[in-house]
Amino acid sequence: MEKSTGLKTETLYKLFVYVSLITLAASIIIPVAWILMASVKENSEFYGSPWASPEGLHLQNFAEAFVEAKMGEYLLNSIIVTSLAIIILLIVALPASYVLSRFTFFGSRFLNSFVKAGLFINVSYIIVPIFLMLLDWDSVLKMILGEGFFLNNRLVLGLIYASTALPFTIFLLSSYFETLPSDFEEAASIDGAGYFRTMFSVMLPMAKPSIIIVILFNFLLFWNEYILALTLMPETNKTLSVGLLNLMAAERAAVNYGPMYAGMVIVMLPTLILYIIVQKRLTQGMTVGGLKG
């Protein structure tokens, strides 16, 4: 009797898990599929059933979004800013997380606590001070050189993105480095490798799954970020998220929905492609981290 009750409980639990996963998958797949279909519809098709399949592939929507709404320019800006931010972030975070996790020195405990404290700082709370600081610096440069540098600058925006993501990235990488055995470092030391050689040739390749997770998470964060991009790029070099909202406002006012959904696809497609490319490595990284922890 107890065995039968246990089997029923396990079956109900599995059923609950499957239903939850199917519901979650449907809540993600259905909106994405709907946006993809809407992006190739003509404007007249939106006045019928919203679930009707498109009568044809009206790719003119993408041409209007790229050319007339300047989504191609915004896409290039987002690619440049996101790439710069990830490169700067990895250059700083990888050595810092390795040193903080594998070495003990004067002030290391304070630095670790300082990094963890940064996890509790919400970027939304410091946007105004950042903007005022850059505005003051630009004012000084305009007085000296005649032109500013810090606002409407993709490099500066990428640097700020990387700075705001440093605490989480260092914390995540440090946690992974701490799980790696020290035998490899000792073997490298015996072979005559220094600290830098050991880090780049031995430890970083072992931490590749964790690095891929960091790149994916931060790519999604930087790619979809809106508030900093809107505040620090008030005139030129607008990113894709800012351009998408401008496009949505313009097309909605003009009752022209096709290019609006085409713009959504342009924003969404790179993240989907990146996830498909790194999906297997992402799963392996999370599994390896869990096993070693």
TrEMBL record:
<dbReference type="InterPro" id="IPR035906">
    <property type="entry name" value="MetI-like_sf"/>
</dbReference>
<feature type="transmembrane region" description="Helical">
    <location>
        <begin position="155"/>
        <end position="177"/>
    </location>
</feature>
<dbReference type="Pfam" id="PF00528">
    <property type="entry name" value="BPD_transp_1"/>
</dbReference>
<keyword id="KW-0813">Transport</keyword>
<feature type="domain" description="ABC transmembrane type-1">
    <location>
        <begin position="75"/>
        <end position="278"/>
    </location>
</feature>
<dbReference type="InterPro" id="IPR000515">
    <property type="entry name" value="MetI-like"/>
</dbReference>
<dbReference type="GO" id="GO:0055085">
    <property type="term" value="P:transmembrane transport"/>
</dbReference>
<keyword id="KW-1003">Cell membrane</keyword>
<comment type="similarity">
    <text>Belongs to the binding-protein-dependent transport system permease family.</text>
</comment>
<dbReference type="InterPro" id="IPR050901">
    <property type="entry name" value="BP-dep_ABC_trans_perm"/>
</dbReference>
<feature type="transmembrane region" description="Helical">
    <location>
        <begin position="198"/>
        <end position="223"/>
    </location>
</feature>
<keyword id="KW-0472">Membrane</keyword>
<feature type="transmembrane region" description="Helical">
    <location>
        <begin position="12"/>
        <end position="37"/>
    </location>
</feature>
<feature type="transmembrane region" description="Helical">
    <location>
        <begin position="113"/>
        <end position="135"/>
    </location>
</feature>
<dbReference type="GO" id="GO:0005886">
    <property type="term" value="C:plasma membrane"/>
</dbReference>
<keyword id="KW-1133">Transmembrane helix</keyword>
<keyword id="KW-0812">Transmembrane</keyword>
<feature type="transmembrane region" description="Helical">
    <location>
        <begin position="260"/>
        <end position="278"/>
    </location>
</feature>
<feature type="transmembrane region" description="Helical">
    <location>
        <begin position="74"/>
        <end position="101"/>
    </location>
</feature>
<protein>
    <submittedName>
        <fullName>ABC transporter</fullName>
    </submittedName>
</protein>
